[in-house]
Amino acid sequence: MPKVRLALAQTNPTVGALEANVEAILATVANAAAGGADVVVFGEMVVTGYPIEDLATRESFVSKSEAAVLQLAKSLVSLGFGEISVIVGHPSKARKRGWAIAHNSISVLRGGEIIGQYHKHHLPNYSVFDEYRNFVAGDKLLTFEHGGLKFATVICEDIWQSGGPVAEISKSGANVTLVINGSPFEIDKDDRRLQLVQELARTHKTPTAYVNLVGGQDDLVFDGDSLMVDASGDVIGRCAQFEQDLLFIDFENGSVSQAGAHPIVKKDDLWQTWNALTLGLRDYCDKNGFKSVVLGLSGGIDSAVCAALAADALGGENVFGVSMPSVYSSDHSKSDAEDLASRLGANYRTQPIADMVRAFEENLELGGVASENLQARVRGVILMGISNAEGHLTLTTGNKTELAVGYSTIYGDSVGGFAPIKDVEKTLVWRLAQWRNEQAERDGETPPIPESSITKPPSAELRPGQVDQDSLPPYDLLDAILEGYVARRLSVAELVATGFEEDTVRRITTLVDRAEWKRRQGAIGPKITGMAFGRDRRLPITNKHKE
Amino acid sequence: MPKVRLALAQTNPTVGALEANVEAILATVANAAAGGADVVVFGEMVVTGYPIEDLATRESFVSKSEAAVLQLAKSLVSLGFGEISVIVGHPSKARKRGWAIAHNSISVLRGGEIIGQYHKHHLPNYSVFDEYRNFVAGDKLLTFEHGGLKFATVICEDIWQSGGPVAEISKSGANVTLVINGSPFEIDKDDRRLQLVQELARTHKTPTAYVNLVGGQDDLVFDGDSLMVDASGDVIGRCAQFEQDLLFIDFENGSVSQAGAHPIVKKDDLWQTWNALTLGLRDYCDKNGFKSVVLGLSGGIDSAVCAALAADALGGENVFGVSMPSVYSSDHSKSDAEDLASRLGANYRTQPIADMVRAFEENLELGGVASENLQARVRGVILMGISNAEGHLTLTTGNKTELAVGYSTIYGDSVGGFAPIKDVEKTLVWRLAQWRNEQAERDGETPPIPESSITKPPSAELRPGQVDQDSLPPYDLLDAILEGYVARRLSVAELVATGFEEDTVRRITTLVDRAEWKRRQGAIGPKITGMAFGRDRRLPITNKHKE
């Protein structure tokens, strides 16, 4: 039996950009062909981007997607790649139709034709996924032959649930299993994926390829990390995380091996998290036509980390920082902000808010929280004004802890189209800042974040001498309670049973419940945990339940 | 066989308010008992309110709901209602568990016990519903006997899909079918419901009761309209729409009849729509602890209709209108706003924005759209300041047409916790205004909306002499294209084929696509159509697809 070379193509499609996605597939097949590939396998819905959400219910979108696949098949032939088997994901029209009208499909292209199709069986409809809403389930395994090898194909969730076509792989006589995926990043998820792929390979005694997408799409970041295991589950090759990649695997005389050098370098969680956040922000900008961002720089840790992420994503010259001091702003808030901008090579300007705040105060009678909110809202108006006038995307710098307890001013510091650290709890913001500075030191570069922004007590600086801990418990305690209440869905009683003080728990959970209306109006931002605010956690605003 | 009296209990529970909901059930059973009822049937999830969304995935919430049902069963006995069969809906723990851990259930309570349980089989997961996400399906019909009659029970979606336990009703030997529902209002949906119930009754040759909830829950409004048909599908009795109600039905010697007078008065679509909007707003306030609302009064039709709805919902004395004229504001914008407030008996104040706008303009260099947005944002800051200082809920007055094309300033006129006419297209806003004024005239009252607000050309008044039609097609054309693109999901090609001009269609659909990020940050508001922005239509922000 001749050698068969498989290429795992880890690419970054854009939702709805059918032509550009097809062009990118063709370019990747050309690279794979140059590397001697016989079979090239792409990620889930690579033709349309993923997830397409309710676009899947638009007749014209599904038609155009199918037409793009046929066009792709023809273009492959005319470019001289007609003998390669190319496996792509896309929506296809279903015969059974209700709200959903399409399957989530695989097409195997060869010789200008679709030589086989598979429709995803298990449709995830939990966490951020709404696939039972948007797709019709398929129920038949697909196998196809190439060079004497028999390949079986399945899609993503099919290997996370038991039963369905995946159970038929051994019986089908397949020699290789191809799993195509759109699996978003979560801290620690890479290990779970590997285990699943290993189990699958061992169960069906087939070498198994796991091909994931890479790139940001709204609040999801696909991290890639595509991989190949042999029939015993041993890792044969692994793609990079957070970048496009192409991995070649050879099948010859019943053995499977990596073709060419492709070192596997797994990085730690902080590296992964930083890179997920950077990629999520970069792709949101790239795919939505923004070249630059504007954000308020308070001298605090949140805006510093957001600015550093933006500089890593877009280059410091495309980051526009604005210091907006009030009468309550400390000197260090201004000097730390300026220091940060200079470390990042970012643009920097100062716009004091006193004149505008005074104009409102002279016209309206506001006190207490209304007066504190006013300062934040004047800053929001300034940032949006700059954004409108200069065309930058506005970043909002709130972290997950703030969002959880509603420690922010709606239409104030929450303004913006993207929230880079929306899913990063406060204690992790600090760890990321330290990690990023250490990384810079290891690389012989200037640490981007001023030390004082990391070490000083956090403060909103909306009244004299205010610090966050005036109104909130210490952040390590707060984050621990939030982890239990939000991520693990524990009740007050259960949290108290694990050792937290009841009053504190009740205070925090009440704040979380009350902030639901604000979160609903918040910007999207990259999900990095198993329970991000947004599509992961869908609770009513009107909700009298007290845990 | 003795006479059996059935009571259809159409009530308004609040999500999460377990104790209050149980109290309300007990009070309703007491009323039903006083009217001689033997069997009392409530709506879907009456114990917890509906929809509970991801609360269904919280272990503690499901446990407390089940405990509340058992407590209810005991309380019924201690209040002397132990011989009545009481049918209530609630979540119950499922044996099979994944993301979802609960069934959407019916319990039949009698003698202090649960004498039977049914678990919803068809879990709607389209439109605004996420039940496949949140519930585990049941698959067995429940029947129970009372007074020699055999009752079968099913839940809502079970009768909208074919197959499942509902198909077993005839075989089960049931004499009466009880369908309990949480079916939100949409214009025209009442007719479709009636047809379904009639078909069900005829298919299984059983008199059939359809019991719906009533009340507002976030963006849904349950309109009630519970009804009873006989085995031939003829309507025997029908509850009021948009209010709580109790309908008695007698079964005697094989015949079914209404007990006592309960006239069926069906009202037209505009009446229904106005009442849906009023109830949605009133319940959002009541259930979230707001006694009053604040909104900007521009003299235009949108704010006038919102203020009139608020006055109908909460009383004019609880409506706080603010006129915020700029240098571009016409005289009529102020006089019409004042006239409106006086007609409604609403509170009224004027807060010119010139000082604040000037303070920003002197500090920032803004022109064009940035300058127009600035005016809207200064107004937003004023409204939120008043809301924070005085405790009113801020209403945002944008209509569905504006939301569709993004004809609004984010963090400006879009600020607010509730959007009363979010799902009302501009042409319907005018029709509702006219209808409400005519209604007032019929009732011998002052028409609430100044005639000039209805007749003048709509304008945002953000620059001299501006009218909406400078930048948008005429509203009747715009609404017709939006109906095709948004509600009917037609493509540009399909819209052009129906006779619209291609340039106009492309311009409008592009505006709709580009405004997705703004809509995501918008306030919730009552759904009245089959395709409301929000949970009905879930599209990516990052989306390069052009129809």
Automatic annotation (TrEMBL), chains A, B:
Pathway: Cofactor biosynthesis; NAD(+) biosynthesis; NAD(+) from deamido-NAD(+) (L-Gln route): step 1/1. One of its GO terms (biological process) is NAD+ biosynthetic process. InterPro entries: C-N_Hydrolase (IPR003010), C-N_Hydrolase_sf (IPR036526), Gln-dep_NAD_synthase (IPR014445), NAD/GMP_synthase (IPR022310), NAD_synthase (IPR003694), Nitrilase/CN_hydratase_CS (IPR000132), Rossmann-like_a/b/a_fold (IPR014729). It is an enzyme of class 6 (ligase). In the C-terminal section; belongs to the NAD synthetase family. The lineage of its organism: unclassified sequences, metagenomes, ecological metagenomes. Gene3D superfamilies: Carbon-nitrogen hydrolase (3.60.110.10), HUPs (3.40.50.620). PROSITE patterns: CN_HYDROLASE, NITRIL_CHT_1. GO terms for cellular component: cytoplasm. This is NAD(+) synthase (glutamine-hydrolyzing). It holds the Pfam family NAD_synthase. Residues 439-468 are annotated as: Disordered. Its EC number is 6.3.5.1. Keywords: ATP-binding, Ligase, NAD, Nucleotide-binding. GO terms for molecular function: ATP binding; glutaminase activity; NAD+ synthase (glutamine-hydrolyzing) activity; nitrilase activity. Residues 4-253 form the CN hydrolase domain.
